[in-house]
Design a protein that fits this description.
The structure holds 2 protein chains of 2 kinds. By secondary structure, chain A is an all-alpha fold. Chain A is built from 11 helices and no strands. The longest helix of chain A has 32 residues, at 121-152. Chain A starts with a helix and ends with a helix. Chain B is globular, with a radius of gyration of 26 Å. Helices cover 71% and strands 4% of the residues of chain B. Chain B is mainly alpha-helical. Chain B has a two-stranded antiparallel ribbon. The chains are: A mainly alpha, B mainly alpha. Chains A and B meet through helix 4, helix 5, helix 6, helix 7 and helix 9 of A and helix 15, helix 16, helix 20 and helix 22 of B.
Chain lengths: 304, 646
């Protein structure tokens, strides 16, 4: 079973991740009564971008050239770090949930630094908004992980998958409240409504797309793959830790695709029903999540 | 061996300090001082690795005693590791005028005083060194910058550290009186224990720059010359941490829970408050000084976790928490002195350090710039550098506070956890801004465009410190094992080489670093070199003019708006128009420091008013004073008569 877990983690994370945003876009269009792009549209875009040449900006330094590779490498390392089942071994980078925070921050830092390097006002606007929102995202993320880690007794993600499996952990409210918090983290990290609107191409409203403005060709392909990898990371953690899942490893692996597809459908539904909120109100929404997770932790402490 | 190394180190520094006052010997003398500091670091690491204690143990008596144990050895190593590159840097940085020579000589003396505080084994020597440690930087700043504003700041610094520094005296003297220095710890849960802990937190917390006792720090650190700023922020405030560890962990035994929660609260407040105000500073050295407050907060969060875990009986994780705090102490010493020295180089090369008026220095000063970039990434807590490791360890320690705790302290641990995560995110925001405005983008002044790389010793100093940040990021476990063993209680087990701590998913630092570097290189190869003709930055078809560039205030505006309720920013917009055509718009905005405005300003005003009232008693006429004397004598006689005294 271990080999199967590794295979799902690597093949799923590295190859199938672009399918997730593709599915969301596809269903969102369907729900809105449009025909919309096919679910494999992200692959077509990656192929198209890979064939084009990159753009060099006058006066940009090595930071601009390195940033997409560093950001993508840190997200790829995060893919190695996040297991898909309870028996997945450590792939040389550990399996710690809190270490994930550092890798996501590195990706953010690299992209934001590239914006300063090309001195593009629109990119910087996106970067500054992204970093502002990341403050409440990280606090909420840590609290949600902490609540689940307390329930499971470890921050080892494989241990957390095992520790939160089955029905008995759902007898208290801790994990449920943490799941509410993590749902908001998923929305913010994947850049979905109501926090960000991935469809817009109006510079003034973009968050995650803004910092990528100056990139083209293979650089942009890497960054877009990185956005898809972020979807995989967040949705896998949501499915395997914060949602009810079975104890047997083969069941976990078998159920994962189903849950991922359902989560994509859920995100598409949310995107259709909820409008984007004012950017400066997003931290408040996330703080609600943080408060929920804190409540979850306190409820676990009281129960003890 | 340790003793021989220490004595020769002290000898080198003494001779160097004496020689530095002569212009002819200046360069050689300062190099000798740097060599002495390097020896000091070797002595410290040797003593830490061998685990042997040298000299006398602690005593509550008042005869001067000196000695070295594990904790002292670790801090000696830290002092040496920062002082050696800093003094090397000072060799080229200092102008060989009289003032510069005096400052360089005093730098050596300052290092010796720090060593004295660390090696002191009795209360008197400790307190004497503590006072000297406060006064010497004041003297150095006055010599280096004899202007009105500096004098005012130095006065503030000395006043603040002395008023609150009384706490240190009370704590240490109470401990000596109770015989707890080198003796059995004070009775657990007693009022004496609480009083010592509180006074130590005020006294040593002021020296460390803990919020709300930090007001002097962001004023005093930036005005010092770069090497002294590096020593103050890198090392001096760490000695206050040494004091706190001695008192809270070593001498007071197991503390009650509420003190642990208080320490956590102070740490969280400093961490978040420090970084938050740092973001709104627009001068590089002042911004770095605020970051010292943040990092002291992170260290104190680790100490608070240690106190709480100890009170809850989780000795293993209490030791890990102590290790995390100490590791972050060394890490911060390295990257903060690196950043201050880098700032000094930029100032030398480009003039003023106003953030909005720099830019593009990475290309013009590749060595200093690259080292500064590494330091900025380390302080922002990014893998695979050292700041990430100690922040991860502190996060884990705080999580275990919740796991081991009751409802109250468990919830406090969770809040502190969230505060630390938010601090890390804010630090990323702040240092992206610093890196962007200083190192990247177009130069924003003619002087910056013409900047060139600084002298070799200054480059070597920052490169050495950057190397330290990388090494500690790759192999922290070697040191962490030793630091965990410094806990005065017996620890059940120690971690293996790659931070496989129980109850965590492990942090194989080398694995993460290898993965990041390999994947980045593969991606860079895959990306290839094919590129379109260079084009200007896209700005909706406009020409990008220099004054369209983003500013420090602009980048932090979303955060300022989100936190408007807390920060209460002020801004002023004046529009001048003639006819209906706007001729000129002037904008000024600032984020006032909440504690300064609400706490210190009223307190200072009140104090000055009281002093003003008291001055009425001083008429300057002889008759009045004779009257006071007669009144006093009459009062005393009356008191004797009614039997109140005598």
């Amino acid at each position: 079973m271990t080999a199967a877990s590794i295979a799902v983690q690597l093949i799923g994370g590295f190859l199938l991740a672009p399918l997730l945003p593709g599915l969301i876009q596809h269903w969102k269009a369907t729900l809105q009564g449009r025909r919309g792009p096919s679910p494999i549209q992200p692959y077509r875009e990656l192929r198209r971008l890979w064939a084009k040449s990159s753009v060099t900006v006058e006066g940009a330094s090595v930071v601009y050239r390195l940033a997409p590779a560093v950001a993508t490498a840190s997200l790829a390392t995060a893919l190695l770090l996040v297991p898909v089942a309870a028996d997945a071994p450590s792939l040389g980078v550990g399996r710690d949930a809190l270490a994930l925070l550092g890798l996501l921050a590195l990706a953010r830092f690299a992209v934001a630094a590239s914006c300063w390097d090309v001195a593009n006002g629109f990119s910087l606007m996106g970067a500054s908004r992204d970093l502002t929102i990341s403050v409440s995202v990280e606090a909420t993320f840590v609290l949600a992980i902490a609540a689940a880690a307390l329930v499971a007794g470890t921050t080892d993600l494989a241990g957390m998958i095992a520790g939160t499996a089955g029905g008995s952990v759902w007898s208290g409210p801790a994990l449920g409240l943490a799941a509410v918090a993590f749902a908001l983290v998923v929305v913010a990290e994947t850049g979905r409504q109501p926090v960000d609107n991935p469809d817009t191409h109006l510079e003034l409203t973009m968050i995650h797309e803004g910092p990528l403005l100056e990139y083209a060709g293979r650089d942009l392909a890497m960054l877009q793959w990185g956005a898809a990898a972020r979807h995989w990371l967040m949705l896998v953690i949501a499915a395997e830790v914060f949602l009810p899942h079975p104890q047997a490893v083969w069941q976990q692996l078998a159920l994962l695709p189903v849950v991922l597809i359902l989560l994509c459908a859920g995100l598409a539904l949310v995107e259709t029903l909820v409008v984007k909120m004012r950017i400066l109100l997003a931290p408040r929404l996330l703080m609600v999540g943080a408060a929920a997770a804190l409540l979850g932790i306190v409820s676990w402490l009281v129960q003890l | 061996m340790t003793l021989a190394l220490l004595v020769s180190a002290a000898g080198f520094i003494t001779v160097g300090a004496a020689g530095a006052s002569r212009a002819r010997w200046f360069a050689r003398a300062v190099t000798l001082q740097a060599a002495g500091a390097a020896l000091l670091s070797v002595a410290g690491s040797w003593a830490l690795a061998s685990g042997a204690t040298v000299g006398s143990g602690f005593t509550s008596g008042f005869q001067p005693r000196f000695g070295v144990d594990g904790l002292t050895a670790f801090f000696l190593m830290t002092v040496g590791a920062v002082a050696a590159p800093t003094l090397l840097y000072a060799r080229s940085y200092t102008r060989v005028a009289v003032g510069g020579r005096v400052v360089a000589a005093l730098c050596g003396v300052f290092v010796l005083v720090l060593v004295e505080v660390l090696c002191a084994r009795d209360p008197m020597t400790f307190l004497a060194g503590w006072e000297l440690m406060t006064l010497l930087p004041a003297a150095m700043i006055l010599v280096a910058r004899p202007d009105e504003r500096s004098r005012h700041t130095v006065f503030l610094y000395v006043a603040a550290t002395h008023l609150a520094g009384a706490g240190t005296w009370i704590a240490v003297l109470l401990l000596a009186h109770a015989g707890a220095i080198g003796g059995p710890p004070v009775a657990q849960g007693s009022a004496l224990q609480a009083a010592i802990a509180l006074t130590a937190l005020v006294g040593m917390g002021t020296k460390a720059g803990l919020v709300p006792f930090h007001s002097w720090l962001p004023r005093a650190h930036p005005i010092a010359p770069a090497p002294l700023s590096a020593l103050m922020s890198g090392v001096m405030i760490k000695i206050a941490i040494y004091g706190l560890v001695r008192v809270l962990i070593d001498w007071l035994g197991v503390l009650p829970l509420w003190i642990g929660v208080l320490v956590l609260a102070l740490g969280a407040l400093s961490a978040v408050g420090g970084v938050l105000y740092a973001i709104f500073q627009h001068e590089l050295k002042r911004l770095l000084a605020f970051h010292s407050i943040e990092n002291v907060g992170i260290i104190v969060l680790g100490l608070g976790a240690c106190v709480l875990l100890r009170a809850r009986g989780d000795d293993l994780w209490a030791a890990f928490a102590l290790g995390a705090a100490l590791l972050h102490t060394l890490n911060h010493a390295l990257f903060k002195s690196l950043l201050f020295l880098g700032a000094g180089s930029f100032e030398r090369a480009a003039g003023a350090l106003e953030l909005d008026r720099l830019g593009g220095l990475l290309r013009r000063m590749p060595w200093t710039g690259a080292a500064f970039l590494l330091g900025a990434m380390a302080i922002a807590g990014l893998p695979p550098l050292n700041g990430f490791v100690s922040e991860w360890l502190t996060l884990q320690a705080l999580l275990h506070v919740s796991a081991a705790g009751g409802v109250g302290d468990g919830a406090a641990g969770a809040v502190a956890l969230a505060a630390l995560a938010a601090t890390a995110a804010l630090a990323v925001l702040c240092f992206v801004k610093v890196v962007g405005l200083v190192l990247l983008g177009p130069p924003r002044r003619a002087a910056v465009a013409a900047a060139t790389e600084v002298a070799a010793p200054m480059r070597a100093a920052v490169a050495a410190l950057a190397l330290g940040c990388v090494a500690l990021g790759l192999l922290p476990a070697l040191l962490f094992r030793k630091l965990v063993a410094l806990a005065p209680w017996r620890t059940p087990a120690s971690p293996t080489v790659s931070l496989h701590l129980p109850g965590t998913g492990a942090l194989p630092t080398v694995g993460v670093a290898l993965s990041l570097i390999l994947l980045t290189s593969v991606l860079m190869v895959l990306r290839g070199k094919r590129s379109a003709t260079p084009a200007p930055t896209w700005a909706c078809g406009q020409l990008v003019e220099p004054h369209l560039n983003w500013t420090s205030a602009g980048f932090s505006k979303p955060l300022r708006l989100v936190l408007e309720v807390i920060l209460r920013p002020e801004r002023e917009i004046a529009v001048r128009s003639s006819g209906r055509v706007i001729q000129e718009v002037s904008y000024s905005g600032r984020v006032p420091h909440l504690l300064d405005e609400r706490l210190y300003k009223p307190a200072v005003t009140l104090g000055l008013d009281a002093a003003h009232q008291a001055r009425r008693l001083q008429t300057g006429r002889l008759g009045t004073y004779v009257g006071y004397l007669i009144a006093l004598v009459l009062f005393l006689l009356a008191a004797v008569k009614v039997g109140a005294i005598g």
